[in-house]
Amino acid sequence: MISIMKAERLKWKKTFIPKLVWLAPIVTILLTALLMGGSFFQSGAYNWWYTMLLPGALTICCALVIEKDSKLKYHSILAMPLDLKKIWFGKILACSTWLLVIILIFFAGITAGGILFGNSYSFINSLTGSLLIFVTFLWQIPLCLFLAAKLGTYMAILINLVGNIAGMIAFANGNYWYSVPYAITARLICPTLKILPNGLPVPEGSPLLSMSVIVPGILIALAWFAIISYLTARWFQKREAK
Question: Which of 6, 15, 204, 238 ranks highest by number of CB atoms within 10 Å?
C-alpha cells in the first residue's frame, strides 16, 4: 500500500496538487487578515476555511488525482497486476495524507497570525479544532474521487461545494445533524471553537456548546469514511471487467 501511495504522489509532481497544499491555507489567512484582522482573525479564518476554502481545495485535489488517470482512460492502472481495490485505497490514503498536511499548514499559519493579531483560542483548542476538521472531512475523499471519476471534475466540485454549504447551513444547528455527514464538522466546531457556520459566535448557554457531541460525531464521520471507501472501491474494481 505504501508503494501505491508513493506512486500516486509521483503522478502529482506536474499537477497543481502540490501548489494547492500551500496556496489554499495562505489565501485563507491573507484574506482574513486583510478583511477581518484583530480579535476576529482566528475565528474568521477558521470559518472560511472549513465552510468553503478547504472543501473546494480538497475536491480539486481529488478531481486532479482522477483526471491524471482518466486522460489515459485508466490503461496504466488496468495493466498493472494489482487488485484495483488496493489502487483505489492507495488513492484515498494519499489524498488523506495531503489533507492532513494542508490542515497542519493552515494550523501553523493561524497560530502565527494569532501571535500578530491576538489569540481567540488557546493552542490546544485550535489544534483540537484542526484535528476535528481533518477527521470529519476524511469521508469526502472517497466521495470526491468517485464523483470526479463518474461525473467529471466540474460536477464533482459543484456537488461537493453545494453539499458542504447546504449541509452546514441547513442541518448543523438542528437535532438531526448526525444524519447528514456534511453537517458533522460544523456541529463539532460549535463547542470546540464556539463559532456557528455563519461565522457568528455561539450564544452563551446554547445547547450547541455541549461537548457530548464530539465522540459520536467522530465515530459517525469515520463510519461514513469506511462505508464510502468500501463501496467506491467495489465500484472501481468492476473496471477490471471492462
Answer: 15
